[in-house]
Design goal:
Blueprint (H helix, E strand, L loop, with lengths): L7 H12 L3 H14 L4 E7 L5 E6 L9 H4 L26 H7 L2 E7 L5 E7 L2 E2 L3 E2 L5 E7 L6 H4 L5 H18 L4 E6 L2 E5 L5 H9 L7 E8 L2 E8 L4 E2 L5 E5 L2 E3 L2 H11 L8 E2 L1 E6 L5 E2 L10 E2 L2 H17 L4 H4 L13 H11 L1 E2 L16 H11 L19 E2 L3 H4 L5 H8 L15 E6 L3 E6 L2 E6 H19 L4 E11 L2 H8 L2 H6 L3 E4 L4 E8 L7 H10 L9 H16 L9 H10 L15 E5 H7 L5
Parallel strand pairs: 1-8, 13-16
Antiparallel strand pairs: 1-2, 2-7, 3-4, 3-7, 4-5, 4-6, 8-9, 10-11, 11-16, 12-15, 13-14, 17-18, 19-20, 21-22, 22-23, 23-27, 24-26, 25-26
Helix pairs in contact: 1-4, 2-6, 6-7, 6-16, 8-9, 15-19
Length: 629
């Protein structure tokens, strides 16, 4: 077998598959370079989801004329010199792969000017580098990437739709705005400004991404624990989100998704959140570079900690103390509120945990008493000495905490198909009903508990659940209209504006047509907002906030479930809310209209599977009274 040495053109294309597989990763790499160059203003422009154009403009230090050609070469970087530097990386970029990889699969141009020098430009097409030439330009660097993957059509066809790619770029920009609140960002997609921040602090950045009212639903924390600094914002006990896209973690300024920190926060919130609800947080973790390895993933999406136990324990202790309102909370709150955080009684927390969560074993038991100024190394030694596995000697505790932590159900369980039961009704016709009766022969005898309607026919009595019956009828009507595409929309007097993040907006935008088909008139309303101006006429009283919250809660698991099925399931839920409730008194006219609409089908079930009618024979009732045996 002959061994071939790959040319730069080939191995750069291979590297591009790991480093710049999508437009958002191109944006990520270029913005990271701009930040590392000391930029205070960064502008990002894209067209067609970044497939046609990505342009990043910064006012950083710029690139010297003699270094411009080096920028395109593989493993050329200004951020590392020796292998030892990998253990103290303080910049966002460091591998020197990004520019060469991007240039290999696009038409790329760099124009740069240092503060003391002149402006020069250089271009590359498909990895073929041109010459450095004088070019007009302001201080800083402008990088333009056009026709991404034009020379690798196999990869191009695997890109998502323009809307999806644009959503992922917007999500990436939002993380940069949050992680670098001292930098002014402008993000423009297809000529429209989507985000504009002003570099005036984290609270302002939060308002740009999540709206002006977000801070009032959060606690601002700032803690130094075991030589680790943790600060940022966490949602209060009553503030949750339908998916994990509202969770941001920055380790030494780098956005990552890390299971250790994620588990610590989830466990701290376990007593307060219902199933399929997720905490909101924007957290910054700062720790010595030598105890965190950033060279783990090609696109630097995760980091590895030298000691996960200390990281987990520190994060869990701080977040749970603030949420539980114990005596340590005042140490961790950045701005102590005028009214102290309410202490949750231990008995109440236990009851909440038993009702809302499952119990799983974890090696992290509790906080261990330590001096406030303890360093990371001291904490490591102390933890190794004090904490022993569950089932052995008891650890020394600073606060009373259970040795078994309550946590939300694992993510695998959370991905169960919660729509399975309703899909049976959507995919199969009703099975043979118990029987059909001409409603004209049913004699109304009254109601029971303002919930069950009683009818008599011959030697039989029927007890009909008025809510289940009405719910099923509404659902049938909506489903039939959906299948015939005859849903009538009812305009709203005041449009409803839905505030979502970039990922949620992209998801809704590419499904506007589906939403309109079922009666929801939806459209973009500036930035990442969605305006709802009409709803299905049969669901005029629908709780729109709850409806869209439930739809967005399913966003992460949509690979296996079509949106149409989810929408139908949510309509079933909406039908339930719109139906007459148990306990509501119906007039005789309403009772007759309800039974007529069922067409005498006594085998109906509500969309959730509950029976609409229960039949009792005269003989069964007489047996109860011992009139017959």
């Amino acid at each position: 077998m002959k061994i071939n040495l790959l040319s730069p053109e080939v191995y750069n294309k291979i590297a591009a598959g790991e480093v710049v597989d999508r437009p958002y990763s191109v944006v990520k790499e270029l913005v990271e370079n701009a930040i590392d160059a000391g930029a205070k203003e960064i502008s990002v422009e894209i067209e067609q989801g970044g497939k046609k154009l990505v342009r990043v403009i910064d006012n950083g230090h710029g690139i010297e004329k003699d270094d411009l050609k080096h920028a395109f070469r593989a493993h050329a970087t200004s951020k590392l010199k020796t292998a030892e530097d990998l253990f103290t990386v303080a910049t966002l970029g460091f591998r020197g792969e990004a520019i060469a990889s991007i240039a290999a699969v696009s038409r790329m141009q760099i124009v740069s000017k240092t503060r003391e020098g002149d402006s020069y430009g250089i271009s590359a097409e498909g990895g073929k580098i041109g010459e450095v030439v004088p070019t007009a330009g302001a201080n800083g660097t402008t990088v333009t990437v056009e026709d991404l993957f034009y020379n690798t059509p196999a990869r191009l066809k695997f890109l998502k739709s323009d809307a999806q790619e644009e959503g992922d770029v917007a999500n990436m920009i939002s993380r940069f705005i949050l992680s670098r609140p001292e930098i002014s960002f402008t993000y423009t997609a297809n000529g429209k400004v989507k985000y504009r921040s002003f570099g005036d602090g984290l609270k302002s950045a939060l308002a740009v991404i999540y709206g002006a009212n977000i801070v009032q639903d959060c606690y601002e924390i700032s803690a130094d624990k075991h030589g680790i600094k943790l600060y940022g914002f966490i949602g209060n006990q009553n503030f949750s989100k339908p998916n994990r896209s509202y969770q941001s973690l920055f380790v030494n300024g780098r956005y990552v998704v890390n299971q250790t920190v994620s588990a610590a926060v989830a466990n701290a919130y376990a007593a307060y959140l219902m199933k399929r609800q997720y905490p909101f947080y924007v957290l910054f973790l700062e720790l010595p570079p030598e105890i965190v390895d950033v060279n783990v993933h090609p696109n630097k999406a995760d980091v590895r900690f030298a000691d996960n136990q200390i990281i987990y324990g520190s994060v869990y202790s701080v977040v749970s103390s603030v949420l539980d309102g114990n005596s340590r909370a005042l140490e961790y709150l950045a701005n102590v509120p005028k009214t102290p955080v309410p202490e949750v009684p231990a008995a109440e927390k236990t009851a909440m945990r038993e009702e809302r969560t499952v119990r799983v074993q974890t090696p992290f038991t509790a906080d261990v008493p330590k001096p406030a100024a303890m360093t990371y190394e001291q904490a490591k030694k102390e933890l190794q000495f004090d904490i022993s596995p569950i089932g052995k000697s008891e650890p020394r505790l600073i606060e009373s905490r259970p040795s078994v932590l309550e946590v939300n159900a694992p993510s695998v369980a959370a991905q169960e198909d919660v729509f399975a039961e309703n899909q049976k009704f959507l995919k199969e016709r009703e099975k043979a009903s118990q029987e059909k009766i001409d409603p004209a022969f049913l004699v109304y005898k009254g109601e029971l508990f303002r919930t069950y309607l009683i009818y008599e026919i011959g030697d039989s009595a029927y007890f009909i659940d008025q809510h289940a019956a009405h719910e099923r009828l509404i659902y049938n009507r909506l489903r039939e209209k959906w299948e015939r595409r005859e849903v009538i929309s009812q305009p709203m007097l005041m449009p409803y504006v839905l505030e979502v993040n970039a990922q949620e907006f992209a998801f809704l935008e590419r499904n506007f047509a589906v939403l309109r088909e079922i009666g929801f008139e939806t459209e973009e309303f500036g930035g990442t907002s969605v305006k709802v101006s009409a709803v299905p006429a049969d669901l005029q009283n629908i709780d729109l906030e709850q409806f869209f919250r439930e739809v967005l809660a399913s966003m992460e698991s949509l690979r296996a479930i079509k949106l149409t099925e989810i929408i139908k399931d949510k309509i079933a839920t909406a039908a339930c809310k719109a139906a007459v409730k148990g306990g509501e008194r119906l007039t005789e006219r309403e009772v007759r209209a309800l039974i007529d609409e069922t067409e005498g089908d006594m085998g109906l079930r509500c969309p959730h599977g509950r029976p609409v009618a229960v039949k009792m024979q005269k003989s069964e009732i007489e047996k109860l009274f011992k009139r017959i045996v």
